Amino acid sequence: MPKLNGKELRKQIIENENIRLRTIPYLFFTTSAAQEDVIDAYSKSIQGFFVKPSRFEDFKRLVKTIVEYWQDCVSPNYVK
Fold it and tell me: What are the pLDDT digits (tens) for 11-32?
């Protein structure tokens, strides 16, 4: 993101109660996963940290898996 990185955006979301309470899944997609970056991200209560696959087919499969998970997940905003 050109003017704001993912960690800075996450901080703004956490600090805004109206947004924070919406239980929006927050995922990191990156080209590499250094151990300290993964630990730092999870310490900020993200819901997933993913390394972008180089092949488009692998990327589509990963996104499909993530979407299916969140479609089945129950959250505080869950309404049946």
Answer: 888 888 877 777 678 888 888 8
- Please measure the distance between the N-terminal and C-terminal CA atoms of the chain and give it in whole angstroms: 35
Find out whether 24 and 47 touch, Cβ atoms under 8 Å: no
> Whole-angstrom Cα distance, residue 53 to residue 70?
20
Which H or E run includes 30? Answer: strand 27-30
CA 14 to chain CA centroid, Å, is 13
Residues 12, 50: Cα–Cα separation, whole Å: 21
Q: Which residue has the higher pLDDT, 80 or 5?
A: 5
Nearest Cα to 9, choosing from 23, 27, 34? 27
Which residues on neighbouring strands pair with residue 48, listed in sequence order? 27
Q: How far is CA 23 from the centre of its chain?
A: 11
Residue type, 39: I
> The pTM is what?
0.69
